[in-house]
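Appendix B. Chain record.
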Amino acid sequence: MEKFLLLIREDAEQREKMPQEEFDRCIQIMGGWVESLAQTGNYISSEPLQPRGKVIGKDNIVSDGPFIEAKEAISGYFLIHAENLEQAASIAQTCPLVLAGRLGMEVRPIILFDNE
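Structure tokens predicted for this chain:
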């Protein structure tokens, strides 16, 4: 099995305007999906991300957040096991909030080194 990172992408403005009750409901929905991934043995870990941060470059530090010009933001991640990229993408496609059009996911293979 290989490891894959599923980056959660969603509209930063919509997320900021989302009422707390709706956010809590989305977290519950995602929790149910995590349970199903754990039952299949594909789940490793996941975390939501705060909407603030810093972008670091060679000559500058942008201190007012990573989403200055972007409408879409990375709001969390999942680390999963899958046989290959196609299976990892298929797993991402089962996410209820992806199916509902609430967010998107970017699927990225993890490079494993010999000592892993």
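Further analysis of this model is presented in Appendix C.
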